[in-house]
Amino acid sequence: MASVRVQRNFEELLSEAVDEGLSSLGQSAKQAMYYYLETVSNLNKQEIPYKVKDFAAAIEKFFGLGSNFLEIIILKQLYEKVGEPLDLPSSEDLNFSKCVEHVRKAKHRKAKQSEIKI
Fold this sequence. Notes:
CATH superfamily: Protein of unknown function DUF3227
Strand content: under 5%
Radius of gyration: 15 Å
Number of helices: 5
Distance between the termini: 14 Å
CATH class: Mainly Alpha
Number of domains: 1
Structural class: mainly alpha
Order of helices and strands: HHHHH
């Protein structure tokens, strides 16, 4: 009997990466950030994978220049989950939304390559 590997969708992986990245700040800070996103930025946790630019803008507004640190942590988690080698620009050239889109395309390419043809 052949085993079929279930592909997890990109949005689920991104959501997990965001949650793990925010967890690096500590549990209380993570909950505070989700509260901020929901109340100030009108962005709930489930919407983040679909509104990456809004999420990036919100954390940049909240953390200022320190947002790059959090974005890098999230991107590291995401690259690992997708199984891609980490390939980030320098922090001053970092564009979170573009990096996420790059990983999304890489995941899509991998999924197409691994489709089982019957």
